[in-house]
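A.,

Following up on our hallway conversation. Structure tokens first:
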């Protein structure tokens, strides 16, 4: 039977995902088989496993930190918001249905068997399971049907670390107030408190920590600093999307769509010295980038309407007319076409005009495409012609099919690689994506995760500006991520009381 420990927070974005990942890395370094687990994740950043199943990227990041392959067992329920009041509900990696928030809250207790089946399967594979909560355990209007915070801790008999975010202020009130709103049984599950994202001299906190421990009758097992590390973020609250970024020698502008998904597609560029990645949500912010990237979205039609109404679309079209290349992925690719049609009401229903940069139309279908792919770029023309013949791996997650007009140039050649362990890959190749005059579109998420692809893009943009590309793209991204996980573990070892945490793990509840 695996041991467990659960990281819960006083609010969203308190740093639960990173702390859970850091603990996964520490336990791995110490020789344990460790696995992450989050019973229910609400996020628009998702991933396709080797078997073609969909899960949240936060648990993929934690699996990387743990040194194991991602599995839907780590995230049995994924909620992908489609609008302000409803979400697509994905269970065990497959779409169950789209539900309103009210309907889902009535239904979710029926998913407990799926949650526990996944958890028990992980127990057979790991020595320690690091669970992550969601939001706050003190949402008193939701507690009766909770399946992700204290409800999950009870089901798994998991001791809890409660994390507060000092960076946003009021951390003592966060922690003490959360503890006050917990029931006695829930309070007994909390074995330690953590103050996260601290900047400054810890000795200044000591009097408050002493009072907090007296109020809560729980030990503070760490004051973790604000960590300068580069790993994937959980959601669009991410500081990556701050509009206070300096423009680099090579400037990439990502359109910050209201329902942006899988913006992690572009993280790799941020690791390259001299390259800036700016997230644009106002037309005036666009400026004169070297490449415009339009990311995925959970609602293509809604977000294209937003681009049109906000003036962002007009700014993108003007920049393209002046020679700036545009690259769209998934929903961003769909927007680049001439028409969007939604006969089944999958998104907004009806039809609308696209941006008109690619000679194609997209028809939304009720069936979701979920597949892992390998592929190569075809004969690419225009500014990014250096991509020709470059290999990549990635995955597709989308509703709808895009159909090019006769003679439309395709961007890539791919083959599906979904398979159960031990099964051969499926090698049927097919053309995918489209390109026009310095416009490129693909359904493949993760297409930039290959350093060969990134090198080709950055070098092409640098040479166009007369910049020496040497030194701009000289990084092994896989090794870079490993360094970041190790750095995070080293920081947490310094600032968390790991002896106390190991005692908590060993003692359980």
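Then the amino acids I'd put at each of the 509 positions:
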């Amino acid at each position: 039977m695996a041991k467990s420990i659960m990281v819960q927070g006083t609010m969203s974005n308190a740093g639960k995902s990173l702390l859970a990942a850091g603990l996964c890395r520490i336990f791995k370094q110490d020789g344990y088989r460790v696995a992450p687990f989050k019973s229910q994740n609400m996020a628009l950043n998702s991933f396709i496993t080797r078997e073609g199943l969909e899960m949240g990227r936060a648990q993929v990041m934690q699996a990387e930190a743990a040194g194991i392959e991602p599995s839907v067992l780590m995230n049995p329920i994924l909620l992908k918001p489609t609008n302000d009041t409803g979400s697509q509900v994905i269970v065990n990696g497959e779409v169950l249905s789209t539900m309103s928030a009210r309907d889902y809250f009535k239904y979710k207790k029926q998913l407990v068997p799926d949650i526990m089946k996944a958890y028990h399967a992980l127990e057979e594979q790991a020595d320690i399971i690091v669970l992550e909560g969601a939001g706050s355990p003190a949402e008193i209007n939701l507690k009766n049907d909770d399946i992700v915070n204290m409800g999950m801790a009870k089901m798994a008999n998991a001791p809890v670390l409660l994390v507060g975010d000092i960076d946003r202020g009021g951390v003592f009130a966060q922690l003490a107030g959360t503890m006050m709103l917990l029931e006695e049984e829930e309070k007994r599950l909390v074995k330690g408190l953590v103050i996260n994202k601290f900047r400054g001299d810890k000795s200044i906190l000591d009097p408050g920590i002493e009072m907090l421990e007296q109020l809560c009758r729980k030990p503070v097992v760490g004051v973790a600093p604000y960590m300068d590390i580069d790993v994937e973020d959980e959601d669009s609250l991410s500081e990556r999307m701050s509009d206070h970024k300096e423009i680099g020698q090579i400037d990439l502008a990502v359109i910050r769509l209201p329902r942006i998904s899988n913006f992690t597609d572009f993280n790799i560029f941020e690791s390259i010295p001299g390259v800036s990645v700016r997230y644009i949500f106002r037309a005036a912010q666009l400026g004169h980038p070297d490449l415009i990237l339009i990311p995925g979205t959970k609602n293509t039609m809604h977000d294209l309407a937003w681009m049109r109404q906000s003036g962002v679309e007009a700014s993108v079209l003007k920049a393209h007319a002046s020679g700036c290349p545009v690259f769209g992925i998934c929903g961003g690719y769909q927007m680049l076409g001439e028409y969007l049609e939604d006969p089944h009401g999958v998104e907004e229903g009806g039809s609308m005009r696209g941006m008109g940069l690619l000679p194609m139309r997209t028809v939304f279908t009720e069936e979701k495409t979920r597949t892992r792919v390998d592929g190569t770029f075809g004969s690419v023309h225009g500014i990014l012609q250096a991509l020709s013949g470059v290999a990549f791996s990635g995955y597709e997650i989308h509703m709808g099919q895009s159909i090019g007009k006769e003679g439309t140039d395709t961007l890539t050649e791919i083959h599906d690689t979904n398979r159960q362990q031990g099964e051969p890959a499926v090698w049927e190749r097919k053309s995918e994506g489209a390109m026009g005059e310095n416009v490129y579109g693909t359904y493949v998420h993760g297409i930039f995760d290959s350093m060969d692809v990134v090198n080709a893009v950055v070098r092409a943009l640098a040479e166009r500006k007369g910049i020496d590309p040497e030194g701009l793209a000289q990084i092994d991204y896989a090794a870079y991520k490993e360094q970041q996980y190790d750095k995070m573990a080293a920081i947490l070892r310094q600032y968390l009381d790991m002896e106390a945490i190991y005692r908590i793990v060993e003692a359980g509840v």
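The first helix runs from residue 16 to 29. Curious whether your intuition agrees with the design.

B.
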